[in-house]
Input
Amino acid sequence: MSQISLEDMLNARVHFGHQVHRWNPKMKPYVYAPKGGIHIINLEKTRVMAQKALDFIEEMVGNGGHIMFVGTKKQASALIKEEAQKRNQFYVNKRWLGGTLTNFQTIKMSIDRMKKIDQMRDRGDLDRYSKKERGQIDKEQNRLNEYLEGIREMKDIPQALFIVDVNKENIAVAEANKLGIPVVAIVDTNCDPDLIQYPIPGNDDSIRSIQFFVEQVGKACDQGYKNWQSKTRNQESKEPVQQSKDSKKDIVQNAGASGVVQVFRSRKLVAVGTAEDVEIAMEIEKESTPEKTEESKPSSEK
Output
């Protein structure tokens, strides 16, 4: 995972907080000093906490998990959608529907309805409806697409959330906390960091600052996905070896049950799979034939 530099954060204007009178006292440990009527965020602490959050995301995605990008404010909406789609993750960038996490089964019914309308349109079934009915269905589809497009393929709740502006997305934060879902978020000087498991002190209003953190989270997802692919390939490469060992074991057991493998007192075992059936039969016959003794010799040879 690449390290975040102070210079990059300075260029992205991450250090600019809110006006002094709008601050949340719980953000005091992350404020460097007030300047010109606004709080300046301590970027040294931001770097440490951001790295911790990104490491968590990389590990989570590396274990097969998914993260939901959440940012419905104007400055974040397009950035959230673009980065989430690029990294094959879920997102909400228009409006957070109450119960998206805590009542996901109901939300899933709306997703199924959206998919059903799409299927009806593809099959031409909507042609059978009147013009007024088609207009109502189109309106419903547009509304569903606007709010549910980013979670269309989501089968279950995500393993983590990344949020821009926790004050605006307070319902999403509350639902995640209720379900015990970890939250990674940009926390400005007017936010409560205690509500966030992985807070990143920073400017959540500037487009440049939001883009910087969204891209960093996207890169962490990308690296985590690569780790997951590598882990999956390693597991798949080990399975045939184990299956081969199990197959050989079964062959030996089956061969022993059928009497093919015999324990010979005077010579080594005939290796299963390396001798022809005729050779094995000859060995068995040879071993079962008693050797001639002095007493069994004809009297003429005595």
Q: What stands out?
A: The CA atoms of residues 36 and 213 lie 25 Å apart. The two ends are 91 Å apart (CA to CA).
